[in-house]
Amino acid sequence: VQTCALPISRYGRSVWGISGASEIKTAQAAIEATVDYFRSLGMPTCFTELGIGVQDDAVLRELAERCTFYG
Prior knowledge:
Blueprint (H helix, E strand, L loop, with lengths): L4 H12 L6 H18 L6 H4 L6 H11 L4
Helix pairs in contact: 1-2
């Protein structure tokens, strides 16, 4: 969270109306609010809930490349 706290905290403020004492706390609250929202829709929020379990770094890198192939 620390490396991307600023954009996530901006997202939390603009989407969820979160305000906090620090960027990190605001970013953490934004992540929690997002997870809570997806759970309220009955959607999985992690690979284990999706049924594919824990993945190693190589698989995660490949997945990230596929998800961002076009930018």
